Amino acid sequence: MTKIAIIPSRAGSKRFKRKNIYPFLGVSMLERSIRLAASVCNLVVVSSDDKEMLELASNMDTTLRKEGFIGHIMAYKRSPELSQDSVPTLPVLIDVLQAMKEVSSLLQGTSPKDRIYSGSLVVCLYPTAVLCTKEEMLNAMDLLLDSSAKSGTKISYVASVYKARGALRSFELKEGFIDFLHPEYLSTQSQDLPPVYMDAGQFYIGRVASFLEGVPLLGKQTLGYEVKLAQDIDTYEDYKIAELKLLLSKL
């Protein structure tokens, strides 16, 4: 089965400038994600509007081939319209897959590119997924394939999730006063609270058709795969926390 990874790596980042190519324990976050994707996927496409990020992807193709990685790396220049801060992930993924479909239709023979629309898996892997492991990605792929085969319910994606401890005791401040979102759990002991999960923002895995049909990435047709480590990286402080989490996990 052909496995395609798409890494959406936009240049703009309001709170942490050019974070995708910022060194994470000595290696840029984008390079880490490319290496992870290339270890499990046949083709890795980096979609970016940034020259430096596209060059990094192109240069890594030769490097990883020499190191024995299975994945071929391809740089895909994203249009300015799809590079705006307000553009969600799904249209970016569809753009890449539609471009690949057009190229594939012109090819002859039985190369992997010709077969990408016959049940191939697509992995959307974010550049900031530096805490994700190869084992987790492979397990999430297996979860999608096994669950799809056994379940009578349509399953479109598997998404990385993490347990949000204490989320049921969250509150808003209304005119400065605390207003609990779930007051029914105020007297519940922490260990007795039902588990609540959030999107880890590391990966989404699905079949080509689910993405091209525009099925929302998070919804009732999405299975959750709980990852061991998660950290949103929106600021420099987030980045340092993520580094610390990874270092501590290796002790």
Q: Structural class of the helices, strands and pairings?
A: alpha/beta
The CATH class designation is Alpha Beta
Main pleated-sheet profile: 7 strands, mixed
Query: What is the distance, rounded to the nearest whole angstrom, between the alpha carbons of the first and last residues?
Result: 36 Å
Main sheet: strand order: 5-4-1-6-10-7-11
The tally of strands reads 11
What Rg do the Cα atoms give?
A: 19 Å
CATH topology: Spore Coat Polysaccharide Biosynthesis Protein SpsA, Chain A
**CATH architecture title:** Alpha-Beta Complex
Average predicted confidence as pLDDT: 89
Helical residues, percent: 25-40%
The CATH homologous superfamily is termed: Spore Coat Polysaccharide Biosynthesis Protein SpsA, Chain A
The low-confidence parts are: 106-110
Number of domains: 1
Could you state the order of secondary-structure elements as H and E?
A: EEEHEHEHEHEEEEHEH
| Count, helices | 6
Strand content: 15-25%
Shape designation:
globular
Give a verbal description of the structure:
- The protein has 251 residues and is an alpha/beta fold.
- The protein has a single domain (3-160, 197-249), classed as Spore Coat Polysaccharide Biosynthesis Protein SpsA, Chain A.
- Helices cover 32% and strands 23% of the residues.
- It has helices spanning 29-38, 51-66, 89-106, 134-150, 208-212, 236-249, and strands at 3-8, 23-24, 27-28, 43-48, 72-77, 121-125, 157-163, 171-174, 177-180, 197-207, 222-226.
- A hairpin with a 2-residue loop joins β8 (171-174) and β9.
- α1 crosses α2 (51-66).
- The radius of gyration is 19 Å and the shape is globular.
- Mean pLDDT is 89; it is low at 106-110.
